[in-house]
Amino acid sequence: MTTTKRGRGRGRTSALIIGATVAALAGITPEASATRARDAQPAWQDCAGQDIPAGMRCAAIEVPVDWAEPDGPKVRLDLARLPATEPAHRIGSVLGVPGGPGADGIDDLKHAASDLTELRRRFDLVAYKPRTAVWREQMPPSCMQPGTSLFEPQDKQQYRALAAAMTRAFKACQNADKTGLFAHMDSLSAARDLDAIREALGEKRLSFMANSYGGVPAAAYARLFPQRIRAMYLDGTVNQTDGWPDQTLRALPVLEKVFTRFTTWCADTPACALHGQDAGAVWRKLVRDADRRPIPVTSSEFGKGELTGWHLRSFGFVGDPGPDHARWLAFAAAVGKARDGDGSGFADFALGNARIWATPGALAMTCADDRGYSGYAQLRKFRRQAQKTSPNFGGASFDALGCTGWPLPVANPSLPLPARGLPPFLGAGSTWGDYAWTESFTRMIPESVTVGYDGPGHVMYLSGRKCPIQHATTYLTDLRLPEPGTTCPAE
Predict the structure, then answer these.
(1) Where does the AB hydrolase-1 domain lie (predicted)?
(2) pLDDT confidence of residue 420
(3) % helix, strand, coil for the chain, step of 5
């Protein structure tokens, strides 16, 4: 699940206060987690299953469901390791931190192994199944029942109604949960899981490859255990430390530029359904009209519904044109039909996402990371900023709306990340999308660099992009960063 920032200059005193505050909110200090009960070293054996890369070994560890209760119930985390191919020159381990949240890092390693052969010469490549992926497999069926179909509240009364509906759904999910994970999927808990893996590997310090939402537990790890990071590569990661509203506002100008690419392409492409027209003006009129008079639609999967302008702004446009611009061709055709009252081209995707992002079991993996609005006043302020920033897509964020009504305290609040004690990080991201997120993260860490990929895409090393992978390999192996401003051409 991907929805799909601040500079330096904060004093040491405030950094120490912030670190202490986060530890207190989480109910356990880093020092306490370091003295937790340790299991025996994991028993590595040949991995079972299909599509296993040659030499991959598997094991498992158990960690507390609630790190504040180390002797309480446990959750099993599966591990996988591809040993270094040049053991005499081995440096250590690189641990992958998967995104989603809910993605299985072992699947990521299976997929990426052939593209990481150079990195593997000097490192064991290690992956794991995070607690969010365990939750996805074990959550009760009631947790997949949407609390509502998301909409954009226009006043306090509508906001309160949305919050009440989501609170009921969250509580029903929590009451049905037998694992205890519902209340403990925040990224501070995930960061402590990462440190338990480090201990199980017998490493004093680890190198990391974090992707997408994996940047949130990576930031939490940097906050709690800075001295245990040898190197950190961030690929298309979000920057939760700046707060989700700022993260979205940072992405909107990029989306506007991509939309301009679409309108330019459409003007030059006779096959585009809006060719010969002002495609941007057609889109904006469609959205305005849908806000006034929602478009009735019927989805084969989700039944009857209505498409408002908010649905179209949130779920209508896809920035990646796809092979042979297939996605942009489909988008233009859907816009042309929708302005004539036929919203079928948007129905499945928009109605589906409006329900998926109101599913308590999915949202429980992110809401404790401070993803929701604090109240209607914050939503209204954000909406004004978003509409000013993005005439084509500005509006309330669907992910933050879904976390409205979260019934538990925010375990991992958005706070600036103290850079003291951290090594320089390397980031990578698409200039068409997630570069702005990743760069806002690495900018917090002195001497860090983010490489831009000049094309669409998300998570370069899982996409097999050779140039970003080479920069990551050089950095992780030699701790040598590329020059600031380095860009990789589209592949």
Answers:
(1) 185-283
(2) 86
(3) 45, 15, 40
Decide if 59 contacts 79 (C-beta within 8 A).
yes
Burial level of 11, CB count in 10 A (0-12/13-18/19+)? exposed
DSSP track, 401-449? HHTTT--S--SS---PPP-TTPPPPEEEEETTTTHHHHHHHHTTSTT-E
| Half-sphere exposure for 10 (CA within 13 Å, toward CB) | 18
Q: Coil, strand, or helix at residue 370?
A: coil
| Token duo for residue 218 | 């990576």
Find the radius of gyration of the CA atoms of the chain: 23
Q: How many residues does the chain have?
A: 491
Give the model confidence (pLDDT) of 55-111 as tens digits.
999 999 999 999 999 999 999 999 999 999 999 999 999 999 999 999 999 999 999
**Residue 470, SS3?**
helix
CATH 3.40.50.1820 matches 12-138+180-243+416-489: yes
- Give the integer Cα–Cα distance in Å for 134 and 104: 9
What are residue 296's DSSP bridge partners?
306
DSSP character for 301? T
Instruction: Please provide the DSSP assignment of 120-176 as one string.
Output: HTTEEEEEE--HHHHHHHH--GGGGS-SS------SHHHHHHHHHHHHHHHHHHHHH
φ, ψ for residue 145, nearest 5 deg: -90, 115
Q: Which residues have C-beta within 8 Å of that of residue 118, sequence separation ≥ 6? A: 470, 473
Q: Which two tokens stand for residue 441?
A: 């993260």
At 255-278, the pLDDT tens digits run 999 999 999 999 999 999 999 999
Regions of the chain with pLDDT less than 70? 1-40
Angle at which helices 12-26 and 215-224 cross, to 10°:
110
The answer to whether residues 25 and 67 touch, using CB atoms and an 8 Å cutoff, is no
Distance from the Cα of residue 334 to its chain's centroid = 28
CATH 3.40.50.1820 in the chain is located at 12-138+180-243+416-489
Helix (H) or strand (E) holding 469: helix 466-478
